[in-house]
Amino acid sequence: MLLTADLYDQRGEDLQSVPLQFLNLGGRARFSGPIRTVTCFEDDALLKSVLSTPAAGEVLVIDGGGSLNTALMGDMIAELAVQNGWAGVVINGAIRDRVAIQEMPLGVKALGSNPRKSSKAGEGVTDAVVRFAGVTFTPGRTIFCDEDGILVER
User: What SS3 class is residue 144?
Assistant: First the structure.
């Protein structure tokens, strides 16, 4: 995989650069793949359901509204993602179980961590266009993540 800085030099404005400063919290800092999306707020049931399905290297972009009040993913949900072939997750929100997740072969970018569990009501939307930090995440388009940041195809 090309590094995001080199990729941006090659493709320029064909790519959106995410200005929000995500932390690298998974065992893989470099990952990319087709986008899938979940929008949910302090509720992890829907993203758990999606990550429980087989994937072929997709990246789940989760818009949690930027909330750091509860974690949207912990080690058990991350393990489901690994078992089902997901390349990674980008969470506009928090995770928990950082030590365990950093040992997994999964790309994880999130805003931070909080040990508090989220609710399990299952509210939210899957595979819709998501927008945060001035960037549009369209299902099926490719996302590129590394230590420098995140690029998204327009």
Answer: strand
